[in-house]
Amino acid sequence: MTSPKQKAANRLNSIKSTGPRTQKGIRSASLNAVKHRLSLPVTEQLFGKEIADVAALVRGECISDQQATELAKRIIDYERNAQFLLEFSTDEAEAELQTWIRSGPRLELNQLVGVHENKQKPWVTFTASRKMTKSKQRLEELSFLKGFVRIQDKVLLDKIARLKKTQTAALRYQKRAVNQLIKAVHRLARGEEF
Amino acid sequence: MKQLNNGQTIPQESNSGSTQTHHLVDASPPLAQSGAAPSTNGENNSPQAKEGLGHTPGLQNGQSTISMAANNNRIGSLAVLPGESGDKYLEGLISTIQELNARSNMQIYYAEKIFQRMWSMKRYEEQKRACLIAEMVKALGGSFAESADERLALTKNLEAGVWDTPGMDKRLKSKGFTPQSLTQKAFERCMDEVLRFEQLIAVAMHSMIGLQKSYESLVHRSIMQERLKLQNELLKRDLQAIDVKSRQINPDMSEHKSDEEAKDASEPIKAKGEKAFQRGQSQDNLAPSDVTPKEAKLQAGEHREAETSEADPKKADPIVAKPKEANPRAARLRKADVPVNKQERL
Predict the structure, then answer these.
(1) Does residue B296 fall inside a structural domain?
(2) How far, in Å, CA of B226 to CA of B221, rounded?
(3) How far off is chain A from B12, nearest CA to CA, in Å?
(4) Partner residue opposite A189 with nearest CB, options B6, B69, B224
(5) What pLDDT is attached to residue B12?
(6) Shortest Cα distance from A74 to chain B (angstroms)?
(7) Is A192 helix (H, G, I), strand (E, B) or coil?
(8) Is the residue at B56 inside a domain?
(9) Counting Cβ atoms within 10 Å, is residue B133 exposed (0-12), middle (13-18) or buried (19+)?
């Protein structure tokens, strides 16, 4: 366990910190407060009409208005999760990746890579010609081409990975919503308040 | 055809399916509006289904009123995907509602959720099968010259489970497969997807069980509340028993009393011992001298106990010593020295 002395030292040191410095770090830290939209609680501000409608429908089975509102909130939470999962799909991103993989420009870039590797004459160059040996120029061109293709692939692959992560989180939220609804109904059956 | 937000299509209203469901739905808007695409093969003409939906007040646009309200009366938020039959969905939903005997809004909502879980489980199973078939077609095809029609025919054959046609035999032989090895190959290739579907089925099953349990508790609410009341009564009775005064044994009388009670208590044991001895004799045909009679053992035990009780009155016969407390539960509670409000909770 951290000693009080060590804690105090940590706090002092943390004052000296200036936060993330690299672009990547700044970007990452800027997303710290971003939450999955399904993690937001169901409130009257966001779902006022839905809560009122559902509460009116279930009021007959509840012992109080408050209980009916709570039950309505849980039902809406469950429904929005189900809706999200029903509409959610990674197909678009996957199709985008497939299109890019089979696209003409990518094939051409790959062909150019092959040309440079076989030490043939390329029909186009991307890097500026400087005073350097041919082999060095070829290597520079090769690294540029490979890097470009990799970046393009990575962007699309990251998009799919992000979407899959979102889907996993949505499944987790749905599980939670189901459990809360089940608990609410059990309490309702016992005649208890939530 | 008009596209809905889920990619579902609205069929023409002149279709037999949509007009049938028209009568069925409680509220008048057509089922197609809710996103369920009715099949055109007329599978669902059962009059029972019609009657069922006619008597289901909690349904609106093929959805329970609660789910409609929760989705802000949005259209097209149904669990029916393209390629699935809206009629079948509706029929299944009605039969589930009828089977569960759901009456109130909440019960109908729950029945709907249970059915939706079943529906999605069925969907995952079908997708798993379709995935395997697609892999089989890939394994059997593979030539660029193959036309789309040929692939379609092959897929249809595999879906129908037709393996014994000469065409299929020829294909299998040309690729070096048997039906079993082809299945194995397909499984190997799409193992990840199969596992994913299995996981989804497991999740759906888990939540369906939870929903069923809470539906049961919702329906049998009165019985449950009655049971809880009875349990409370029982607890109250147990706690009242704590106040019963325990019997005080006079130390002067204890020896005589314990002897008498020990005698009374040992009499049935003796009788039991005799019976067992007789049974043993008759079963094993042993000589009486070969067997140590239980009675003798018991008597010996009694003598020993009597001696010990004479020497130490605290070590009296446990059978006799036990009824000091009227209620063992109360005794336990008293021993633990739990405060009264905690006892009530216990």
Answers:
(1) yes
(2) 9
(3) 24
(4) B224
(5) 36
(6) 10
(7) coil
(8) yes
(9) middle
Q: Are A44 and A51 in contact (CB under 8 A)?
A: yes
Domain span at residue B274?
255-324
Contact A178, B214 (CB under 8 A): no
CA dist., res. B144 & res. B39, Å (int): 34
Q: Indicate if the pLDDT at residue B285 is higher than 80.
A: no
Q: What percent of chain B has pLDDT over 70?
A: 50
Would residue B32 count as lying in a domain? yes
Q: Given pLDDT bands bounded at 50, 70 and 90, which one contains residue B245?
A: low
CB contact under 8 A, B218 and A191: no
Total domains in the fold of chain B = 2
Best residue of B3, B67, B224 to probe chain A, by most A CBs closer than 10 Å: B67
Contacts of B157 (CB under 8 A, 6+ apart): B165, B167, B168
Interface pTM, i.e. ipTM? 0.72
Task: Name which of A60, A75, A189 is nearest B70 (Cβ-Cβ).
Answer: A75
The residue with greater pLDDT, A122 or B122, is: B122
Tokens of B175: 């690729």
Residue B136 included in any domain: no
Q: Could you give the CA distance from residue B201 to residue B125 in angstroms, rounded to a whole number?
A: 8
Q: Is B75 on the interface with A (CB under 8 A)?
A: no
Question: What is the nearest CA distance from B61 to chain A, expressed in angstroms?
Answer: 16
Q: What is the pLDDT of residues A10-30, one digit of tens each?
A: 999 888 888 888 998 998 899
Q: What is the mean pLDDT of chain B?
A: 69
Say what percent of chain A tops pLDDT 70. 99
Distance between CA atoms of B5 and B81, rounded to whole angstroms?
11
Determine contact, residues B320/B265, Cβ cutoff 8 Å: yes
Sequence spans of domains, chain A: 37-190
Judged by a CB distance cut-off of 8 A, whether residue B215 touches chain A is yes
Structure tokens at A193: 């308040």
Identify the three-state secondary structure at position B29. Answer: coil
What is the chain A residue with the closest CA to B210? A182
